[in-house]
Fold:
Amino acid sequence: MFMKKFAALLVSFALLFSFVTSVQAEAKPISIWLDDEPLQLGQSEPIIEKGTTLVPAKLILEKLEFKVSWDQENKAVIAEKAGLVLALLTGHQTAYINNVEKALPAAPRVIGGTAYVPLRFISEAAGYKVSWNNAERAALLEEKEASRGFLWKTEHAGNTVYLLGSIHIANEAMYPLRKEIQEAYESSDYLVVEADISKAGEPAIQKLVEEISTYKDGTTLKDHISAETYAEIGKILKGFGLEPNAFDAFKPWNVSLGLDGLTSQKQGFSAGIGIDAFFLQQAIAGSLPIIELESFELQLRMFDGFSAELQEEMLKGSIESFYAEDSGIDELSDMWVSGNEEELLALTNETAGNEELYKAMLEDRNLPMAHKIKGYLNGEKGETYFVVVGAAHMLGEHGLVPLLEKEGFTVTRQ
Structure:
C-alpha cells in the first residue's frame, strides 16, 4: 500500500513539476538582444500574440537609431532613418515602407499608453536579421552587411558628381545601403535621374503612355506577333482571370514590360522600392531639386522605335522568364549587393550581343548622358550632383565611366 501511495506521489510530483516548469518558462520575460547586447526595456516588456512578438515601438526603434514620432490623426507610429520611412497604423495589419504597402503578421496596438509593433517587421526593414531562441525566450537582432552597390566619384573645377549605378526594381534584401552611398546623397545639391518616376501617375504622363504604347491604325497585338507567341500571352492572361485578348490594344514592347513587372512581383521585387525610387522619395521629402537626364517620352519612343523582330524577341524572353523558376532577378540583386564589377561588365557586354538593342538602350543614350554630366562638372557654382542611372550604363565601351575618362576626368570607384 505504501509503495502504491509513493508511486502515486511521484507521478503527482512529475505532473506538478512539469506543469510548474512550463508555467515558469512561459512566465519568463522576453528579452531582445542587439548585436550580442541585451536591450534594457524597463517596464515595457515585449509580448507574444499568436506567434508574433510585439515590442514597444518608440523604445526599440530608437535603439535601432530611428527618429520616431506619433501621428495623432492617423494613430500611427512614424520612424525615419537615412532615407527609410516606416509608417505603422495601430489597429491595421498594413504598414508602409517608403510609401510602399506591406502586410503585417499582427496589427500594432496601444497597451497602457504605449504603441506596440511587430518586432520582426521593423527589424528586417531596418536591415537586421532576426532569430528566436526558444529556450531563452530571446529575440536576437544582427545587423546585415550593407549593400555595396556601384558608386563612382569625379570632381572638376570645384564641382562633384557621384555616379550610382542602380537597379530599377529591388526587394528588402538589398537594403540597407552602405553609409558611403547615403552620405554621398546627403552631401549633394541635386538628385539626377534618368526620368522622374514619381510623376508616372500624373494624367499627362498616363496620356503619353497610352498614346505611344497602343495601336491607332485599326490593328491589334495579334496582327504584329506570331500565333504561337499570342497564344502564350492568352494563357498567362487566363491564369489571372482575364480574357486572352485583354492586351490586344498594346504594342509588343509594352506587353513585354508588363510581363516583366508581373515576374518581378512574383519573386518579391518591386519598382516601388527600387534604388531610383528610394532616393526620389528622399528628394521629394527633403525638397532637394530633381533633374532628369532623359524623360518619359524619350524612353517610351525608344521602345516604340524597336523593330518588329526585336519587340517579339523581347516578348518571348518575357514569357520565358514568367514561367522560369529562376528568372535571373535574384542574381541581378546579388550582383548589386556585392558590387561585383566583373559581373556588371559581363552583363553589359552580353547586351552588346544584340546590336539593335545595345545601340538603342546604351550607346545612343550614354553619349547624351555623359555630355550633360560633363556640363555639371564644368559648372561655375561649385555644386554636387548625385546621379542615379541603371547600372548597365556605367561600364563597357560606351559606359559613362569610360566616356568621362576619355574626356579627361578622373573617375574613382567608391
Notes: The first strand starts at residue 31 and ends at 34. The radius of gyration is 27 Å. DSSP finds 14 helices and 19 strands in the chain.
